[in-house]
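Protocol step 4 of 5: obtain the predicted structure for the target chain.
Materials: sequence only (see below). No template structures provided, no constraints applied. The aim of this step is simply to have a reference model before the mutagenesis design in step 5. Sequence pasted as it appears in the construct record:
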Amino acid sequence: MDDHSGVPGSDLTSRLWWIGLDAWVIQDGNYTDVAVGERRQFALELGYRRAARLVVPPEHERTPRCAHTGRGTSYDVVGEVLRTAPGPGEEAFVLDVGLMASTQWLVLDDLEPPAAGTWLAGTIHLSVDPFFYMDELHALPGMPSLIYTWTVERVQRELTRETWADVDGTRAGEEDASYRLGCRLEAVAPVSTMEASGDRSPYGPLPG
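Step 4 output (structure tokens):
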């Protein structure tokens, strides 16, 4: 397993990752449109269905895993909670499933947040961090570096809940559009800021 701050291993960089991106994130001025072939930086945000909360797996299953389900940006995962929410104003959890992703809402079936060190299993979806991590969460105590470097190999626009169409890139002007990015993770250690992507608003592709 990769350490929590090191360069991702070949088991993570050899696969294509499908990561969600809604048009509103670009429309808000957080990123420029994303095109096939670009190198980009962004952190991952995780989400899950509230009716299908993550659960604590048995001890023999506590090995990080993140397998695409074949649908959308959905993954079957097993992972460890690296950071929990210690108090009001610091509602940020980090789950390590091989890659690290953050969320501001994470409760178990007892409606209590999991403690750091808790192992969880279930189905999540992965998306581009809209702005939460890069603007605020990165500065919280105990927050790991979560901004990865990616090469965008495919961009798909959602046609229906189950079908996607390849496009050359996102179009911020398309209201309510939903995309997924087919990305290759680069063997570069994650960072805490988006400085390499240029001035703050909006962030664009990496130079060179």
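Step 4 remarks: The mean pLDDT is 92. The CA atoms of residues 60 and 119 lie 11 Å apart.
Proceed to step 5.
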